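Summary of Year 1 activities. Much of the first year was spent building the evaluation harness for sequence design. The harness presents a backbone, in tokenized form, and records the residue chosen at every position. We chose the following record to illustrate the format because it has been used consistently in internal testing since the harness was completed.
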């Protein structure tokens, strides 16, 4: 994962969403696939749909949104989750 790459996502609100207790089902129209997302993936998609960002920038915004400390562990988690979202075709980078 490149630290300076900017990640992008389609507007999250453009996709039908079903919320369960701790998970969200997201139908991705472009691929025709349904994804089961656990926190913090939905929040990451929302933030990237509003504004493309780097791992560091997204970590800052996500931690502020969730009210959690921004530290090395948070940065690592965001990086790993971005890899998962990219593999699923829900985000891309430039």
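For this record, the design step produced the sequence shown next.
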């Amino acid at each position: 994962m490149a630290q300076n790459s900017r990640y992008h996502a389609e507007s999250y609100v453009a996709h039908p969403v079903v919320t369960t207790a701790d998970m969200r089902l997201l139908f991705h129209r472009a691929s025709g696939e349904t994804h089961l997302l656990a926190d913090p993936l939905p929040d990451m998609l929302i933030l990237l749909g509003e504004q493309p960002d780097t791992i560091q920038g997204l970590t800052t915004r996500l931690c502020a949104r969730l009210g959690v400390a921004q530290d090395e562990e948070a940065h690592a988690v965001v990086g790993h989750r971005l890899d998962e979202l990219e593999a699923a075709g829900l985000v891309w980078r430039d």
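The CA atoms of residues 6 and 94 lie 6 Å apart. Quantitative recovery figures across the full test set are reported in Table 2.
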